């Protein structure tokens, strides 16, 4: 139903009347779209006329009439600027707003001002003089940042100088006076950008930063738990609302963003500020959950629930910006992969989380609904924001009676609304890509595509609506929360997030392989997190490529197999291993024994000795054999004298070709990747194992150097 | 969102997500492909973040919903919301910008971790019209794509080169994947474990069936 009403209003953006597209009218410096509009005089649409005619029923009257409506589609800059003032010498507010918000895509302030001053000179002492001046000052007052030079905020640019020159030259005292006033105001009250807002908020903190212990993440995390869910949501919303209110909508335009990111960094974009804040919220979520490796599982679980509950309140507060941030951070790989943590959540919380996820991903639908509700909180003064807003304001009128009351009654003071800005940015990129900035007339003249401006403005007008809605939040700022947000928590970068996540819960595929390795007749026993050696591990992990975590995590668990943690074992039940635990996308773990001459497995007095070798997807057979020999303390043996043989189920074997890439050559369908190294030339000597048991175990023990410490070793008794 | 319907002239509904650095031309690609979405008369801009295209491949009908995240590249950790439940991903880089290629590698890593091998990947080097300023060699990109089981294409959205092929190939692979998943579901025997090796790139044994495409 919503989409239907949208489509209807869009077909006639000017108002609800019937309007039909008729033709395109080409001028030399402009292209117009001509619409036919039917106006009824009897039906009450036009009250003044209706009253007149109803006085005397006998007199024939005009029932309806079709008029032509011309809409500017494209024109030269000069023509567009003329178009901003209508025949009655009034500013056409709809067109003016569109132009002022979008002109930076196609021209500069100086160019606009130059043309306007030319018009002004030509229109001196005529009724057109006033609206042109009015236009100049509207621009100057509403977009002061266009008049400051990029390098310094206090400096004014060419455009202002031109205006001053004009005022001097034409001896226009009034204009000169107003200009000086404006310039003084501009330098006294510089327009704050978003980044500056953030700095300003941070700098106004009463708490001395030096008083705070730098690395006390646990305490900071605990603080979060002590805050109420609603409180945190409100404080986050306050920051978001502040940023939104200070957003300069026209900076959302694709071209402008491109310009502000490349080069001229002096002019910090308010959009960039919003994005920074969004990312900061994400970082807080990730760091509070992953920052402290010593955090007990129960506490981490409480923290996760905390964020879900905060997200819930963000939804109630209609803060879709931070809601999206929290939900996407919880879904980001480092947190989302913590299967055991998620499995430990109460069903109710998990259900709530899933609901919120759906809400965020079907953002389009949500946006339309929110728009309606958001609009209910806006002021009537928004009406003159052009076509886009007019459409919204009709919505407002129709929805006000039904929605507003119930809305405010249910939630008390909440009226505000903060949308997720990314949606608008995508729409604007789409528009920018789809529509050309210039179009050509039949005579080949290059015109500014005003239709594009109009469409872009429709989106900017929505943002403006939200901006005014954001002003209606009534939340008291709490300095201690802001302090917590900006300073208290140690923020992890994404690398650290991953490495910590892998330490908190090792990859499931390798959990599986460990279970296989340490699986004995007594049952599965696992090691928990061993605090000693953790720092070494962490260092190693952070040095490694993400895909190479495998050997480290496995070995860590292996090295602590003697000190099992009950906690850990209890929780592993919830993880399920579906595919071969020895395989990842780029590497696999092979269990390689030395040939014990029996062909299928190696026995040394009942003990099957194998080494697990991590093989990546580029290793050749020789290097795998070399690695296996080294681990079996056969450093001096020549790998060329051995074959690598895979032991398949059903007592079959497969000799890996000598020059193969092992990862791809092996039969990966096996549930266990078992191999033997078999001497090529060695005669078959039954009953004489090359490595007696006693020697091998003593040697293993003696070579516990740094490298070996982290390799997988396991001696399993075969029954 | 996985392909549903069991009836024989089955319609596949696939979700495809476009990922990549800003300004590599994701939106140009998708708009080029679903061209008629943005004609003069189409005034609506709402719903723009998700465009649809219907096509027929062989006797299979496919509805693609293509999700574009353009403009949101700098929002951290936003990917999961978009690529969850995707059947395919198109990872785009700009051939003149090596950073954008590195970014593709990050996306591949993340997608593999999150979605395993269920998602079909296509890597695209866009802007071949700027061949003179090329900074990412074809060999490097192709080698990389092969190593992660992705298909690599070169396109120019500007000149409309190679765009159609990208979506056709991806659709074909998504159909194969859907068929494979169906087969696995049907044969719920434990022996199906042998297909677990996700890293093996299946080569097409038979030449592709005649392909028709177009808007329905």
Automatic annotation (TrEMBL), chain A:
GO molecular function terms attached to this record: guanyl-nucleotide exchange factor activity
Superkingdom classification of source: Eukaryota
Keywords assigned by UniProt, alphabetized: Guanine-nucleotide releasing factor
Biased composition (Basic and acidic residues): 8-21
SMART domains per the UniProt record, alphabetical: RA, RasGEF
Annotated Ras-associating domain residues: 610-682
All copies of domain N-terminal Ras-GEF, residue ranges: 68-184
Name of the protein in question: Ras-GEF domain-containing protein
Originating organism: Ramazzottius varieornatus
Lineage of producing organism: Eukaryota, Metazoa, Ecdysozoa, Tardigrada, Eutardigrada
TrEMBL record, chain B:
Membrane topology reported for the UniProt record: Lipid-anchor
GO cellular component: endomembrane system
GO biological-process terms attached to the record: protein transport; Rab protein signal transduction
Keyword tags: GTP-binding, Lipoprotein, Membrane, Nucleotide-binding, Prenylation, Protein transport, Transport
Localisation: Endomembrane system
SUPFAM superfamilies per the UniProt record, alphabetical: P-loop containing nucleoside triphosphate hydrolases
Keyword Transcription: no
One Pfam short name: Ras
GO molecular function per UniProt: GTP binding; GTPase activity
Family note: Belongs to the small GTPase superfamily. Rab family.
NCBIfam families noted in UniProt: small_GTP
Family matches, as PANTHER family: PTHR47978
Protein name: Ras-related protein Rab-21
Species: Ramazzottius varieornatus (Water bear)
Taxonomy of the source species: Eukaryota, Metazoa, Ecdysozoa, Tardigrada, Eutardigrada
Annotated gene: RvY_08927-1
